[in-house]
Amino acid sequence: MADEIKNIAQPSARQIGFYGNHEVRLDAANRLPIPAKFREVLESRFGHEAYPLMLMPGEECIRVMPYAVWSEMCRQLEQASRFSPETARLKMSLYGNTADCELDTQNRIRIPAGLCKLIELERDAVVVGCGDEMAIWRRHAWEKFNAEVSKNLSQLMSEFSRSQIHRE
Fold first, then answer.
1. What is the pTM of this model?
2. Domain span including residue 153
3. Is position 61 within any domain?
């Protein structure tokens, strides 16, 4: 009975995906360790479809997507109008700044200097779980983001709830 309760209380990485946050340090060669819990998600949820990992700019962060997730996002992006200037700018920015990478033997990824420069990442970082992807933040930017979001959390949850009602 206790084993059954334990299995219910602790869903697998496959069910939840990436969650939580982990403070890490970028080394002089722009290598950043991927936390063990996130490597487990890569293996259990995505398997061989996780690699290469795709790095792309986000708002104040670097988004890290398993290849399968990135591929689906690209498919959706390609369905957008070719005649929209906003879509053209988005594609130019995303595709132009995206890089692929693999884990090295010490379970690190190398972040291109251009992406580090975009978010002003130098040393102290936080790897954040975001469901089916991860995000790399400068530690201070992550702390500021959390402080801002916590002030408006009930509003954000209300807006999310309303958007879900309109989708049904």
1. 0.85
2. 14-167
3. yes
Residue 18 corresponds to which tokens in the numbers above?
């990436």
Burial per residue of 126-161, b for 16 or more beta-carbon CB atoms within 10 angstroms, e otherwise: bbbbbebbbbbbbbebbeebeeeeeeeeeeeeeeee
pLDDT at residue 5, as a whole number: 46
Render pLDDT for 93-104 as a digit per residue (tens, 0 to 9): 999 999 999 999
CATH number of the domain enclosing 147? 3.40.1550.20
Query: Which alpha helices (H) appear in 35-151, and where do they start and end?
Result: 36-41, 67-78, 85-97, 113-119, 139-151
Flag whether 54 is in a domain. yes
54: tokens are: 């795709």
User: What kind and span of H or E run contains 5?
Assistant: helix 2-9
Cα 155 to Cα 152: distance, rounded to the nearest angstrom: 5
Q: Quick one: 56 exposed, middle or buried, by C-beta within 10 A (0-12, 13-18, 19+)?
A: buried
pLDDT given for residue 161 in this prediction: 78
Q: Compute the distance between CA of residue 50 and CA of residue 75 in angstroms, rounded to an integer.
A: 17
Residues 6+ apart with CB under 8 A from 66: 42, 45, 46, 49, 50, 51, 53, 54, 132, 133
Domain membership of residue 31 (yes or no) is yes
Contact 55, 70 (CB under 8 A): no
